[in-house]
Amino acid sequence: MLTVTHVTYNSVQLNWQPAKDGAEVDQYWVYQENTLVAALNGDTTYYEVKELSPHSTYHFSLIAVNDDGSQSATKDVTVTTAANQDETLLFNRFDGTILDFDQHRILWKQTGDQVLWLFNRANQSQTMVHDATMAGAPYTIGAAKLSADGVVYSILGKAVNTRYWKDGADQRYWDGWEWGYLHEVNGNYAVFTFGAADVTTGGSRTLPSSDFENAYRFDLSYDGTVAYTDPTSESSLYLSLPDGTLTTYDPSSNYQTYSGALTDGKNMIYKVLKVDNGSDSMWSLRVRSTDQRITEETELALNPYAQDEFADPRKSYRISNGWIAYNKYNQDGDSWTLYVRSPEGEEKQASFLSGHVNIEQLGPDGTVAYSIQNQTYLYSAPKGKLIHTSTGPGTFHYIDGTWYRLDGNSLFAVQTDHSDTTAPVWTAENPLTVTDVTYMSAVLAWQPAADTEGVTLYRIYQNDTPIDTVTGSVYSYEVDGLTPSTAYKFTLEAEDAAGNKSANSPSVTVTTNAYAPVDSTAPVWPDGPVLTAADVTYNSVQLNWQPAADDMGVDSYEIYKDDSLLASVSGSVYSYTALGLFPETAYGFAVQAKDAAGNASLKSKVMSVTTSAYHPLPNPYMDLKVKPGFVQVGSTLDLVVKAEEAEDLYAFLADMKYSPQQVKLKEVWLSPSFGTEGKDAVFSRKLQDGRARLAGALLGPVPGRSGSLQLMTIRFQVLAKGPVVFTLDPNTEVADSQGQTRKLGTPVMLELVISDPDFDKDGKIGLSDLVLISRHSGTSEGQPGYDKAYDLNFDRMIDSQDVQYVAGKVAAGSA
C-alpha cells in the first residue's frame, strides 16, 4: 500500500511496505503524473518528492521491479499540498468528505454517501461506523457529528432516523417522525427539529416553538444550553438549560423581533429589530448573561436592517468563552469592520480591509478567523495582531489550542506560534505613484513590497492619517472626496501577518485640479433639416448631419437605425456610412448629440431611406494600358491594369502572363484610385518568370470602388526588340463588398512592338527613316495607314511627337 506523510506546501513523503511476491525486488520506480521521477534501490521504503507547488493536487504511482525484470501491479495515491509553509496535512481522503473532527478523531463519509468512517489520529486506524449498502435499500448517510465519546448520525431513506454510535455499535435510536432531522451535536448533546437530547443517557427535552429547518435559528453550547428564536414569528427569545429550565424573553418597547440567538453556555448574543418612528429599522446586537445574575442587556452594535442580510448569524457574530466577535456597519464609508470584545468588555478592531467580513470561527482564547476578499485571516485579540493569513479554500476551526483548515477531503494543521520579526521592505526606487488626478480624486499605484512571509495588507495614509487598507495582492487605490486646488500627501505602509510594518514608507504629494463646473446643458440642433442621405446603394447609405451646438462642446454623435443604436462617432465627425443593409428595404435613421458630461440632445427627426434594388455584379471589364513614352532596349515600360465601369469593386485577383524573353518584371504598386497599401488597402504579389498573380482588397466595412479606375501599375524592363504580348488570364476575378465574385471569362491581351527608328533596316537611323514615319503621321489606331511599329510612344497614334523623336535621332547621328 502506498501512503503519504509529511505533506507541506512544497513537498510530500511517499511510504510503502516492502513488496512480498517471492522474488527479490531490485528497484522501486516512482512516477509523478505518469512521469518517472525516481528509480530507488530495492531496500528503500520511502521517498520525498520536492519542489511542488502550494495547494496543488498530484498523483503518484509506485512499481516494484524484480531482478528478473518483471514488474508488480501499480500502487497509486493522490494528495493535495498545503496552501503555505504554516500548514501540515493531517488527513486526506480523495474518496470521501470530512464531516467533523476533534483532537483525536476524524469523521468522514465515503463518496456515494453510504459508508461512514471514524479515523483514529493517534494510531492511524479506521473503524466503519455504518454501511448503508448492507440494508438492501437505497439508504444514505445524512448529517453526522462527533459527540464527546461517540458519533451521532442520521440515516435517510423512506424514513429518517438518528443513531448514537459508540465502541463499535449503535447505542441509541431516535425516530424521525417524532424528532425530525438532526441539526447539531456539541459535547454529549444533540438538537433535532423538535427537541434536544443527551445522547449518552437518552434524556430529552422539548423546545417549544422550535420546528427548526436548519441551525440558523438556534445555538447549542457544549454544556447543553440551547438559545433560539421562534422560527415562525421571531417574536420571542428562548433559553433552554440542560435541566429543562426554559426562559422566555419578550421584546421591550421600540423592539419587535428577535433573531440569530447564539450562546457559549455563559452568555447569550442575539439581534433585536429596533423600530423608531420616522427612522429606518435597525438591528441592535445585544448580549446578556444566561444565569440570570445579570439581567441588563448590553448593546454592541446597531446595524442597518437592509445591510445585515446573512441568513446564518455566525457569519456576522460569534461568542466563545466570554469573547465576542461581531461586525459593525460604518454608514459614512458604507463598509463593515470586525471587532473582538474580551470577557472584561475591552473592544479591539480586528479587520482593516474594505468589504463585508465573514466570521468563520472564534476560539475560546479570543482568536478569530475571518475571510474578506477571498482571503482568510487569523487575528489574536490578546496579542492585538494578525497571526496568520491564507489564500487556501475551506474553513478554519479551533480545537484545543490548535487551528485547522478543513478543505472538503483534506485536513491541515495551521502553525500560528512562529516568530516573524522581519518587516516588509520596499525594493523599488520610487514604488508609489499617482495618476488620473481630477478636482476631487486621484489614483494611487505602487510596486509590491517584499516580505519573507508575504505582505498581508497595505495601509493608505492621507496627510499622515490612515484612511483605508487593502489586501496584500492589491496594488492600486482611488482616493475620492478631495477638495479642488488642494495639495495632499499620501503615504503607503505595508504590513505582514505578524503585524510587522514597513519602515521608510513611500510618500507622494499631489495637488488636485481646479473645480470644473457641472455641465447640465444638453446639445441642441440648429433650425431646419438636420439629417440628410447621399450615395444610396442596395446595401449602404451615407448619412450627413448639421453640427449640434453645446456650451462645453459636443463630444460624440450617436447614429440610430430603426430606434437601435448603430454607431457612435466623435464630435468632430458629421457623416457616417451605414453598411450591411438589405436591398429595396426602408430604414429610419436618426442622430443624437452628446457632450462629455453625458448630456444628450433630442434625437433628430427620423429620416426614411429606401435602398436600391440589387443587381448582380456584372462580368468585369478590365483593360491593359501602357503609359505613353518612348521605349528602347534597356529602358522601362509601365503597364496599367484598369477596371472599366466598376460597381462596388472591393477586391481583385489579377493573373497576368507576359513574354519573359522580351521584358523583365521589376516592380508593382497599387494605384491610389483603388487604395493605399497598408493604410486603407492590402496588396499581395506572387511573381514568377513570365507570370504575376496580384491580389488587392480594401480594409474595413466600406463600400467598394465604382466607375472607371486604375487598379495597379506594373513596371517592366525591356530586354529585346520585337513584339511582346501581355495577357490577363480568364481566371482573373473581382469581388464586391458582400463577397460575391465574378471572373473575367475571356482573356484581355495587349500586344506591343518594341522597335527602334531604323525602319528601313539599313543599320542606321537616317533621313529615309524620318521620311517613312512622317508619311504615317496623323493616323490613329483603327484608321487606314496606322502601323503600331511607328507608334513609338504607345499612345495609339502617330503624331508629331513620334516624328520629332526620330528627327532627334537623325540629327544626333544614331546608328
Brief descriptors of the model:
single chain, 815 residues, mainly beta, Immunoglobulin-like, 7-stranded antiparallel beta sheet, 4-stranded antiparallel beta sheet, 3 helices, elongated, FN3_dom, Dockerin_dom_sf, hydrolase activity, hydrolyzing O-glycosyl compounds
Secondary structure: elements and pairs:
Layout: E1 2-5, E2 12-16, E3 25-32, E4 35-41, E5 46-49, E6 57-66, E7 75-80, E8 87-92, E9 96-101, E10 105-110, E11 115-120, E12 126-131, E13 140-146, E14 151-156, E15 160-166, E16 169-175, H1 176-179, E17 182-186, E18 189-192, E19 195-198, E20 204-206, E21 218-220, E22 226-229, E23 237-240, E24 246-249, E25 255-263, E26 267-274, E27 282-289, E28 298-304, E29 317-320, E30 323-330, E31 335-341, E32 347-349, E33 358-362, E34 367-372, E35 375-380, E36 385-390, E37 395-399, E38 402-407, E39 410-414, E40 432-435, E41 442-446, E42 455-462, E43 465-471, E44 476-479, E45 487-496, E46 507-511, E47 531-534, E48 541-545, E49 554-561, E50 564-570, E51 575-578, E52 586-595, E53 607-610, E54 621-626, E55 636-649, E56 651-657, E57 663-670, E58 681-688, E59 691-698, E60 705-718, E61 722-728, E62 733-735, E63 741-743, E64 748-754, H2 767-776, E65 779-780, E66 797-798, H3 800-812
Antiparallel strand pairs: 1-2, 2-5, 3-4, 3-6, 6-7, 8-39, 9-10, 10-11, 11-12, 13-14, 14-15, 15-16, 17-18, 18-19, 19-20, 21-22, 22-23, 23-24, 25-26, 26-27, 27-28, 29-30, 30-31, 31-32, 33-34, 34-35, 35-36, 37-38, 38-39, 40-41, 41-44, 42-43, 42-45, 45-46, 47-48, 48-51, 49-50, 49-52, 52-53, 54-55, ...
